[in-house]
Amino acid sequence: xxxxxxxxxxxxxxxxxxxxxxxxxxxxxxxxxxxxxxxxxxxxxxxxxxxxxxxxxxxxxxxxxxxxxxxxxxxxxxxxxxxxxxxxxxxxxxxxxxxxxxxxxxxxxxxxxxxxxxxxxxxxxxxxxxxxxx
Length: 134
What we know:
CATH topology: 2,3-Dihydroxybiphenyl 1,2-Dioxygenase, domain 1
Largest sheet: 9 strands, mixed
Number of helices: 3
Protein name: methylmalonyl-CoA epimerase
CATH class: Alpha Beta
Strand content: 35-45%
Organism: Mesorhizobium sangaii
CATH architecture: Roll
Pfam family, one: Glyoxalase_4
Catalytic activity: (R)-methylmalonyl-CoA = (S)-methylmalonyl-CoA
EC number: 5.1.99.1
Number of strands: 9
Number of domains: 1
């Protein structure tokens, strides 16, 4: 079911500072910020060749990232994103296996314009999992 690792997402308290650290200190290629109001985040992607690092900053008062940063004020790893060929088939297979899909169970469009779903971290050893249709 799982394809390649699409990205590792890091929640950050200050997106501009995180971009500067990756671009200026590490010499990485970083995309322009993209606001995703339906997800409550502003994101940038850091290209690291074989995958990406997604830097997430809260967007709006109801952002799920804001709650994460309250518990982790310096930021930290938020989720792993894996590609799947068919997100609806993957969702259905995971539900049968007992995994919990967050939200209403229907995919939303993610930062890459592709359908995404999130899986409950308690079902995956404390790690939030995002699935993105490839």
